[in-house]
């Protein structure tokens, strides 16, 4: 390990002075993401443990209750659309980082903004979904599905919200020329967070929406 | 308050004199000061937790006692556990992490100094918040495990459990933030040449503990969040009437709860592994095995949670699995015990107070470990569950393990922190009182448990045969109390009038002893280059000192180019050349008040929810939470754009 690092240092003078050669902030973010995995893991586990145990409707998927056919409440086409937008925003994030590293400020700013914009569309869909469900009679208190669904997706939505604010801050900074290539790490770390939020959604979407 | 203190390395005199005054402590980002703050605060909470224990024991001194009401008794045993676990022992280990880890790895500070301050202030506010509930006699009264559905609003309408869910969320956040910081510090800020397998064992144990904290406390955060939503917003997570499984809280809680006990004991393994080699004048026996055994303990700790739930009826397959996995943990733990004994074997042992505590730790912890293995047998546990036998077990591992280890660590590192030695005479008195006291207090509990006395009952009747043992136990608790007073007196007197220590009073081997006591603000004038596990026992002096097996490794590999300083926390945005070999300067981050502001915001976010009383919207001060969110946002932005960091 140390030999390898010595080689890294020799090859890249001006490399960061850390034991691993990695920036501490980046490593802290990875560790933070590790902790977040357990947070979301617990929420997902609780969702799964309570899946199908709701005593009253509305239910997530169509099912037969007392011989009657009950429609599921989840709107899969809409959420597929918002999922697609969220995943595409990760592509925008990659481009934003690329342009930041290459010092092309205008494009970096544009793609940062588009990433945040994609996140906002996702959030808009979620707000619409939540209001719609609320009108359909599904609240936090209604049943186990309501509790576990709102907490899990709401917790994820809160993460997306933080991410959008984070990205808009970076967009502003980038537009003012305060994120040059030498500060690309700031964008990279935001990217780590953003991709993580996406990856978690890739787990949540099939578990909650697609699997009956 | 200079914005950035950058001075040439070889001229420590140029570093601005240590600032004094309350403001300098509030805004400090120095890991040593934060360590001291952690230490003082957690010793305060240790005394509070001890007082709670004495109240409990006083109530139980004789049958049908009316010293405490049943409700206050419930609050006391709950708060005793919460105070000791979350406000005294975990933070006291964090005090050692803070102060010692950067010194042991040859760094000038932790990776994120302001984050370090933030975790302290969150802990302090959370601690005061929980303590306030005790003083107002509306403290959590449901045991530290707060089993839902019994803790749901209909069964516990008062604010008691609200303090539990909100207070522990605040304190848990502090632990997670602190742990992220320590993990990165240990992985990334080691001095040149300090490979992972050259780290002092204490630093290794801190790393393992903190990995457990960031994972286990995340699980706990979700558990208390769900309970909070149930109580505050009427969700159905733990409501069997709406279809929930009544056991689900227990599973989540113990999924956190069992790693938590390792979070409390693994740092102590590290402390003991520093003290025993030092006072035996021998390198630690089986260093590598110690490291791997601890990793194994941390790993297995995730697979044993249901041994807390043998009596709920999970069935023979689950019970067998968890019985076996629990028994497995005895193997790595046993390895450690034998390694410590092996270290002392043939060594030139000096019986200082620190060493006495360390040796008695081995004995007492083994007693606790043996009763632990007894619980792991599910059929036996069915008899022992919820009796005083369990109380005896946890006190032998927590008091005989964690507390004795922390005492040992305090005697050992006190001279490094204050520059003065603790009194050995008072230390001996403290040791004797503590040892007699703890065995008198906790050993009879084994018998009480086997006689059938249940835990958490506020009194017992005459003629059940519990009188004698309870009396002994209470007297033992008083002795521990006297011993602790001696300890505090020793701390205060020695800090002022103790004998001067010098840099290395014990002749220890690790890097923290290579610098003056107390260490200068910048820790190391020059960042050391490490060539072995025991840098101060290298070469001829070691051989002359007659240290057996004091062999120095031959390798000269270094993490960075020799002689360069890697301890500074460089902001890559400052555009300095990191690898400049000439004049690096000591970069000390300027003080900052944003950590305490942000911590206050976090207190408001959670703390204000206590006013969300189910009955009266009159007391619903939700806007305080929003204000808290606002303060946190302002804090984070000011933090991110603060100059000089």
Short key terms for the protein model shown above:
heterodimer; A: 212 residues; mainly alpha; 6 helices; elongated; disordered N terminus; B: 645 residues; two-stranded antiparallel ribbon; 17 helices; globular
C-alpha termini separation of chain A: 47 Å
Radius of gyration of chain B: 25 Å
Major sheet strand order of chain A: 1-2
Order of helices and strands of chain A: HHEEHHHH
Got a strand count of chain B? 2
Cα shape of chain B: globular
Oligomer: heterodimer
Instruction: Tell me the structural class of chain B.
Output: mainly alpha
Please state the CA-atom Rg of chain A, rounded to the nearest Å: 21 Å
Structural class of chain A: mainly alpha
Tell me the overall shape of chain A: elongated
Please estimate the helix content of chain B.
Answer: 55-70%
Compact overview of the structure:
The complex is a heterodimer of chains A (212) and B (645). With 212 residues, chain A is mainly alpha-helical.
Secondary-structure topology with pairs:
The complex is a heterodimer of chains A (212) and B (645).
Chain A: H1 2-11, H2 24-49, E1 63-65, E2 68-70, H3 76-102, H4 105-136, H5 144-175, H6 184-210
Antiparallel strand pairs in A: 1-2
Helix pairs in contact in A: 2-5, 2-6, 3-4, 3-6, 4-5, 5-6
Chain B: E1 5-7, H1 22-26, H2 31-59, H3 70-105, H4 113-135, H5 160-188, H6 201-233, H7 248-280, H8 287-300, H9 316-344, H10 353-376, H11 378-384, H12 388-418, H13 424-451, H14 467-497, H15 539-544, E2 586-588, H16 594-607, H17 622-640
Antiparallel strand pairs in B: 1-2
Helix pairs in contact in B: 2-3, 2-4, 2-14, 3-4, 3-5, 3-7, 3-12, 4-5, 4-16, 5-6, 5-16, 6-7, 6-8, 7-9, 7-10, 7-12, 8-9, 9-10, 10-12, 10-13, 12-13, 13-14, 16-17
């Amino acid at each position: 390990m140390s030999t390898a690092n010595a080689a890294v240092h020799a090859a890249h003078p001006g490399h960061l002075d850390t034991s691993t050669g990695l920036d501490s902030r980046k490593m802290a973010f990875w560790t933070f993401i590790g902790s977040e995995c357990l947070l979301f893991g617990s929420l997902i586990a609780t969702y799964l443990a309570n899946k199908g145990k709701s005593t009253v409707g509305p239910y997530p998927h169509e099912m037969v209750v007392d011989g009657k056919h009950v429609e599921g409440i989840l709107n899969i086409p809409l959420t597929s659309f918002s999922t697609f937008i969220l995943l595409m925003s990760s592509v925008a994030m990659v481009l934003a980082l690329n342009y930041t590293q290459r010092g092309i400020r205008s494009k970096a700013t544009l793609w940062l903004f588009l990433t945040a914009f994609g996140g906002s569309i996702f959030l808009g869909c979620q707000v619409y979904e939540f209001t719609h469900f609320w009108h359909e009679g599904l609240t936090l208190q209604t049943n186990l599905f309501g509790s576990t669904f709102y907490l899990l997706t709401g917790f994820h939505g809160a993460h997306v919200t933080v991410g959008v604010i984070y990205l808009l801050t970076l967009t502003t900074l980038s537009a003012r020329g305060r994120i040059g290539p030498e500060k690309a790490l700031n964008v990279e770390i935001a990217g780590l967070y953003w991709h993580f939020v996406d990856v978690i959604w890739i787990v949540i979407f099939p578990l909650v929406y697609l699997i009956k | 308050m200079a914005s950035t203190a950058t001075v040439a390395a070889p001229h420590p005199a140029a570093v601005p004199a240590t600032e004094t005054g309350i403001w300098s402590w509030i805004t400090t980002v120095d890991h040593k000061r934060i360590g001291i703050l952690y230490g003082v605060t957690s010793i305060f909470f240790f005394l509070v937790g001890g007082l709670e224990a004495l109240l409990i024991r006083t109530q139980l001194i004789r049958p049908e006692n009316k010293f405490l009401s049943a409700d206050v008794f419930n609050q006391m045993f709950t708060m005793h556990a919460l105070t000791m676990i979350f406000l005294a022992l975990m933070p006291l280990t964090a005090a050692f992490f803070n102060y010692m880890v950067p010194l042991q790895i040859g760094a000038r500070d932790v990776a994120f100094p302001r984050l370090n301050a933030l975790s302290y202030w969150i802990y302090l506010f959370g601690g005061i918040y929980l303590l306030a509930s005790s003083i107002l006699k509306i403290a959590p009264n449901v045991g530290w495990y707060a089993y839902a559905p019994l803790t749901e609003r209909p069964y516990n309408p008062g604010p008691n459990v609200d303090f539990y869910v909100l207070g522990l969320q605040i304190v848990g956040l502090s632990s997670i933030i602190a742990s992220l910081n320590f993990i990165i510090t240990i992985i990334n800020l080691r001095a040149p040449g300090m490979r992972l397998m050259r780290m002092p064992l204490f630093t290794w144990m801190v790393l393992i503990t903190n990995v457990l904290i960031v994972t286990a406390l995340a699980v706990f955060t979700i558990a208390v969040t769900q309970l909070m939503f149930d109580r505050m917003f009427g969700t159905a997570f733990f409501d069997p009437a709406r279809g929930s499984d009544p056991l689900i809280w227990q599973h989540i809680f113990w999924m956190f709860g069992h790693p938590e006990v390792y979070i409390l004991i693994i740092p102590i393994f590290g402390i003991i592994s520093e003290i025993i080699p030092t006072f035996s004048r021998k390198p630690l026996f089986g260093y590598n095995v110690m490291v791997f055994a601890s990793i194994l303990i941390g790993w297995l700790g995730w697979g044993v949670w249901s041994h807390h739930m043998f009596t709920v009826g999970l069935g023979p397959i689950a019970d067998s699995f968890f019985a076996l996995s629990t028994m497995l943990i005895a193997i790595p733990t046993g390895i450690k015990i034998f390694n410590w004994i092996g270290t002392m074997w043939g060594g030139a042992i000096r019986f200082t107070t620190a060493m006495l505590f360390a040796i008695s730790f081995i004995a007492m912890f083994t007693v606790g470990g043996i009763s632990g293995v007894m619980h792991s047998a599910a059929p036996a546990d069915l008899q022992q569950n919820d009796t005083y036998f369990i109380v005896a077990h946890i006190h032998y591992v927590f008091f005989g393990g964690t507390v004795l280890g922390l005492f040992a660590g305090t005697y050992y590192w006190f001279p490094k922190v204050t520059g003065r030695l603790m009194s050995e005479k008072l230390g001996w008195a403290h040791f004797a009182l503590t040892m007699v006291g703890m065995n008198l207090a906790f050993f009879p509990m084994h018998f009480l448990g086997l006689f059938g006395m249940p835990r958490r009952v506020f009194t017992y009747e005459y003629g059940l045969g519990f009188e004698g043992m309870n009396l002994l136990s209470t007297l033992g608790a008083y002795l521990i109390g006297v011993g602790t007073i001696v300890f505090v007196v020793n701390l205060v007197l020695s800090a002022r009038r103790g004998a001067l220590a010098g840099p290395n009073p014990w002749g220890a081997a690790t890097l923290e002893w290579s610098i003056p006591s107390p260490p200068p603000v910048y820790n190391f004038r020059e960042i050391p280059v490490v060539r072995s596990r025991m840098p101060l026992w290298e070469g001829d002096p070691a051989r002359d000192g007659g240290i057996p097996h004091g062999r120095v490794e031959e390798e000269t590999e270094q993490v960075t180019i020799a002689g360069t300083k890697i301890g500074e926390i460089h902001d890559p945005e400052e555009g300095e050349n990191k690898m400049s070999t000439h004049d690096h300067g000591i970069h000390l981050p300027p003080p900052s008040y944003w950590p305490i502001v942000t911590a206050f915001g976090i207190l408001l976010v959670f703390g204000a929810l206590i006013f969300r009383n189910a009955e009266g919207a009159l007391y619903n001060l939700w806007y305080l939470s929003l204000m808290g969110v606002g303060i946190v946002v302002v804090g984070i932005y000011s933090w991110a754009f603060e100059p000089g960091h």
